[in-house]
């Protein structure tokens, strides 16, 4: 009986060693698969980081363009107000000045006709 247990024990050890070899191969395959997946994920993350950086640069350029456009618009608006005020002043000076000239001409005509 002891010899049978020993023989049986020998078979069990052999099977365990075979199973261990199979498991080692499977583990190596799983590790390789995981390594490949991590490499793909890393590559994808690199692409997304680059894309995000380019998008941030574009957003910054758009923001700067909008801010410059707003500043230019404000400057044009201020210049237009200034021009409008100048034209109004010129109009009133011309109107008052021409009214004074008309009054002088009327007075001269009246004096001449007397």
From TrEMBL:
Which residue ranges run through the membrane?
91-113
Tell me the keywords, alphabetical order. Membrane, Transmembrane, Transmembrane helix
Quick one: where's region Disordered? 64-85
State if Transmembrane helix is listed as a keyword: yes
- In which residue ranges is the amino acid composition biased (Basic and acidic residues)? 71-85
- Would you tell me the protein name for this molecule? Uncharacterized protein
Origin organism is: Suicoccus acidiformans
Please name the taxonomic classification of the source. Answer: Bacteria, Bacillati, Bacillota, Bacilli, Lactobacillales
